[in-house]
Amino acid sequence: LALKPDVTLSIIKNSKDIKGSTEKLYYDENVYRISSGSNSFKEIMQTGLECIGDVSSYDVCEVIYLAVKSLELIEENYLLDLSHAGLFSALLKLSGVENNIRQAAVRAVADKNRDAVNVLYNNGDISDTAKDILLKLITDYKCVADLKANLNEYLSDENVAACFKDFEDMYNFLMANAEKDKIRIDFSIVSDTGYYSGIVFKGYIKNIPQSVLSGGRYDKLMKKMGKTSGAVGFAVYLDMLERHNLSENEYDYDYLLIKNSSADNSAVINKVLELSKNGETVKVAEEIPNGIKYRNLVIFGEEN
Fold first, then answer.
1. How far, in Å, are 137, 149, 204 from residue 153 at the CA level?
2. What is the pLDDT at residue 292?
3. Is the Cβ–Cβ distance between 85 and 198 less than 8 Å?
4. CA dist 224 to 16, 105, 195, 198, 215, Å?
5. What is the mean pLDDT of the chain?
């Protein structure tokens, strides 16, 4: 049995990689990854999309917009966290963080751990500039203007400025095309700067403590696999949504319909169709079953 760790790798491997060509693909697959808690394989149900080829800024906007719309369909109480792997990497490079402590620095930002940054500084592992940059990456920002003001002294660097401009454009696009209070700037979500190269995002919904959607631009991964094209995409974790549905459903059924054994089946079917016309769930039984929860009890021929 071959366990696929990732769908994107297969898509990249089989992409055309032809100049002037853009492929838009979607998938619905199960993947298998090592669980950090148990060190055993965990099955993850994914559905997602990829845009590969000559990826334009519009293509990236389109993918992010679809991610927002996906979250809206799943749950009205959602949040989309936005970051930029290129800007993160450019700032780390500017900070002079050495390779041997880069992982610790990235982890400190991922955990939003100011104490960890201070420990690195007090141990002499990072400079004043590095400390300042890491703390600014940990800071929460209400808008991109606040981020720009905080990073102003570093925007003279050409690479930092270019990445910031790309991030700013994507942020402003979302401000114009999504609910403003549902979009957050959060650099803690950048965990793999060797995979992603540009915009990175994660989606969250009410009552689920982990992200149910994640994606971004991954030109670096394309290059690692010998491709010259760009790529952007995202995945929705369907197994996480199953947990959401369980937590949201207080009842097993919206209606429990009790009928006697001699009831006309056609009439019962018509009653079920009437009760479920707006998507409600109906359980038909001849007596009230043990161990189930229902919102409404209907005795066939008489509603209670």
1. 14, 8, 32
2. 84
3. yes
4. 16, 24, 9, 15, 18
5. 88
- State the pairing for strand pair 41-53/22-34: antiparallel
In angstroms, how far is CA 86 from the centroid of its own chain? 18
CB-facing half-sphere around the CA of 205: CA atoms within 13 A: 24
Distance from chain centroid for Cα 271? 41
In one letter, which amino acid is 236? Answer: V
Across 272-302, b (16+ Cβ under 10 Å) vs e yields beebeeeeeebbbeeeeeeeeebeeebebee
Judged by DSSP in three states, 262 sits in coil
Q: Average pLDDT, stretch 50-72?
A: 95
| Percent residues over pLDDT 90 in the chain | 62
Classified as helix, coil or strand, 156 is coil
Rounded to whole angstroms, the Cα distance separating 165 from 192 reads 21
